[in-house]
Design brief:
With about 650 residues, the chain is an alpha/beta fold. The protein is built from 22 helices and 30 strands. It has a domain of about 120 residues: GMP Synthetase, Chain A, domain 3. Strands 12-11-8-6-7-14-15-23 form an 8-stranded mixed beta sheet, sandwiched between helices. Helix 3 packs across helix 4 and helix 15 packs across helix 17. The site of 5'-O-[(S)-butoxy(hydroxy)phosphoryl]adenosine has 24 residues, from helix 13, strand 20, strand 24, strand 25 and strand 27.
């Protein structure tokens, strides 16, 4: 593996600068030992930074694989993210928003409170109550955050679905959660083009029996967009229901373990998993990590570039920053619209101080060239974060130099939808960083590398595991607790208390982690997890396809790209048109994020004698490597033919 060589060569080190360290939120390295000596006491102290209606009577209860945190405690997330700041921050900007066309809005904490309360009352009027599920399918507009917070106020469970997903993906998620209400927009924008959200929503909802109402946010100025049919009384306009709602809504007293939200993520089977997060532990984890990792100070302008459709958007666009009373920035559109300096123009004009983005974006910026950031004054930036996939050392160095002016610390943060909050990351005022390493677990967590047998590997390569529960961990998979136990707690049968993250990693002499990526059949394309099975099921649903195997290959910008090997049904001919049609089919059924870069037609797939598809060989072919051991194949001639075909396709 090439990566490992690069990592071993990486000897550059960056220590926190003195003035950064002196003003950092976390300065005292002894926090690691104190937290390790009594993790429950550590997390209880962090939970006490939130406002509770009633205190808990027990910090944690662990009956693997099920955990509860802050038992008996009650709180409300919207109270913690909004109400409790009103006394001191009523006029402080909570949400700073810019749309792709350049329109801008700001909401102070006072205004946010107004909107959240009205939305909460509107939802109640539409029949939504405690425990009901609400699906949210919106562009990145302030209404997305308002709707999420409004759900938390009345104890409804939100399920945000990324606006780039297809109607079929939306339908499946609504049906799995049994959502009662859908909040969508008339349109969204992407690179100047309108995205027909409402039309997609209508297609989806036609096959969703549970949906009673669709609330539509009007994104287009002036008269509502044409083409979006309106089905009264099912459909209602957001601005109509908000106009009639009162700005005072008594918050529900939620139990710490009440479900806060469901968020769907890809797994190794065709069906997405509804990751379940609860109230008290999740908010404790995201509030604490936002403050510590991003070194939040009162006058920071924090910009996490993720969409609210992903967990990063939940934890670090909405809940973490707002729980801390920070100013959080939202940008609706693409980084290269209207030009490749849009992010830097945004940083300059909104005076962003902390930027949190993904390696896939950083690699694209690198490719576009240094001139784009150089056009802008980025001197307000003081801290940079990275998340979503391994960041290669060169991209890390480029980010530090060209965006951070060699002045800002870089925090590479490892975590997952399932962990809810950042787990492995530097603390910028304490940790010496190494480009490409997420460094060590934050205080209160216990991450280890284990071998197949569950033995700890102090130095070397292995499987990343969590050996103790943490407050913001997922509690189950919605409607499928057996799959929860099987996916995360069955890797080491003799140790059913160990959480398996699905990632491989290396650990160096300083006990730093170097995350290598997924070890299961899940790919990471541009920071988004895609189950290869999911794409295969969609390909096979096309009438021309008999069998399909999807693997990942390295990609300069996206990290990984999808390569599909497809066998056609008898009588069907391969052609460039069919190749495009299959790509379109995947986009229609899942969304553009799952579009295969390569589609290769083949008469046969390489299989073992027991009939298992040899993905390792397909990956070798897709990445142009010499073929490894083919002796276990049922028919070794198949791969040789495939390799030849692949190489001729690329030329
Ligand atoms: C997977 C989780 C958590 C927010 C975004 C993705 C990969 C995430 C890093 C990092 C190396 C990383 C892992 C992980 N990943 N952050 N800093 N270094 N890999 O959330 O969709 O749940 O994906 O993303 O493979 O398991 P997600």
């Amino acid at each position: 593996m090439n990566d490992i060589d690069v990592l071993l060569d990486e000897r550059r080190r960056f220590r926190p600068a003195d003035d950064f360290r002196q003003h950092a939120v976390v300065r005292d390295p002894s926090v690691y030992e104190r937290a390790a000596a009594d993790p429950e006491a550590y997390w209880a102290a962090r939970a006490r930074e939130l406002d509770w209606f009633t205190p808990w009577n027990r910090v944690m209860e662990w009956t693997p694989p099920h955990v509860k945190w802050f038992l008996g405690g009650t709180l409300n997330v919207s109270v913690n993210c909004v109400d409790r700041h009103l006394a001191t921050r009523r006029d402080k900007t909570a949400i700073l928003w810019e749309g792709e066309p350049g329109d801008r809005r700001t909401l102070t904490y006072g205004e946010l409170s107004h909107e959240v309360n009205r939305c909460a009352n509107a939802l109640r009027t539409l029949g939504v109550g405690r425990g009901d599920r609400v699906a949210i399918y919106l562009p990145l507009v302030p209404e997305a955050a308002i709707a999420m917070l409004a759900c938390t106020r009345i104890g409804a469970i939100h399920s945000v679905v990324f606006g780039g997903f297809s109607p079929d993906s939306l339908r499946d998620r609504i049906n799995d959660a049994g959502a009662k209400l859908l909040i969508t927009g008339d349109i969204g924008y992407r690179r100047g083009n309108p995205v027909p959200l409402k039309r997609n929503a209508d297609t989806a909802v036609a096959a969703c029996l549970s949906i009673e109402h669709v609330v539509v946010v009007q994104r287009t100025p002036g008269t509502p967009a044409a083409g979006a049919a309106f089905h009264a009384p099912r459909d209602v306009w957001w601005h109509d229901v908000m106009r009639h709602a009162s700005p005072d809504c008594v918050p529900e007293r939620m139990d710490a373990e009440d479900v806060l939200y469901i968020l769907y993520t890809s797994g190794t089977t065709g069906r997405p998993k509804g990751i379940v997060h609860t109230t008290g532990g999740y908010l404790t984890g995201v509030a604490a990590t936002t403050k510590d990792v991003f070194d939040l100070h009162e006058d920071d302008v924090f910009w996490c570039t993720a969409d609210v459709g992903w967990v990063t958007g939940h934890s670090y666009v909405v809940y973490g920053p707002l729980a801390n009373g920070a100013t959080t920035m939202l940008y609706e559109g693409a980084p290269d619209w209207p030009d490749k300096d849009r992010f830097w123009a945004l940083c300059e004009s909104h005076r962003v101080t902390v930027l949190y983005t993904a390696p896939t974006a950083i690699r694209a910026f690198m490719k576009w060239g240094d001139a784009y950031p150089a056009r802008h004054d980025l001197s307000r930036l003081r801290l940079l974060g990275s998340v979503g996939e391994p960041i290669n050392p060169e991209a890390w160095i480029w980010y530090r130099r060209h965006i951070g002016g060699d002045r800002c610390p870089v925090v590479d943060t490892w975590w997952q939808t399932e962990t809810g909050a950042i787990v492995i990351s530097p603390l910028p005022g304490i940790t010496e960083t190494k480009p490409g390493s997420a460094t060590v677990a934050l205080p209160g967590y216990s991450a280890e590398l284990l071998d197949r047998g569950g033995k700890v590997i102090p130095v070397g390569g292995g499987f990343l595991a969590m050996t103790r529960p943490w407050p913001s961990m997922l509690r189950t998979i919605w409607g499928d607790d057996a799959r929860y136990a099987e996916t995360y707690f069955s890797k080491w049968p003799q140790r059913p208390d160990l959480y398996f993250a699905g990632d491989g990693a290396k650990r160096d002499e300083d006990a730093y982690f170097w995350i290598l990526g997924r070890v299961d059949d899940v790919l990471n394309v541009a920071g988004h997890r895609i189950g290869t099975m999911e794409v295969e099921s969609v390909l096979v649903s096309h009438p021309a396809v008999a069998e399909a195997a999807v693997v990942g290959r390295q990609h300069d910008i996206k990290g990984q790209a999808l390569a599909a090997f497809v066998t056609l049904r008898a009588g069907r001919q391969s052609s460039n048109e069919l190749r495009d049609e299959l790509r379109r089919h995947v986009v229609d059924k899942i969304g553009a994020i799952a579009r295969p870069d390569d589609v290769l037609f083949t008469a046969d797939l390489p299989k073992t004698r027991s009939g298992k598809i040899m993905r390792r060989l397909l990956r070798d072919i897709a990445e142009g490597r010499a073929l490894g051991d083919t002796t276990t194949l049922a028919d070794p001639a198949v791969v040789a033919g495939l390799k030849e075909q692949y190489e001729s396709m690329e030329s």
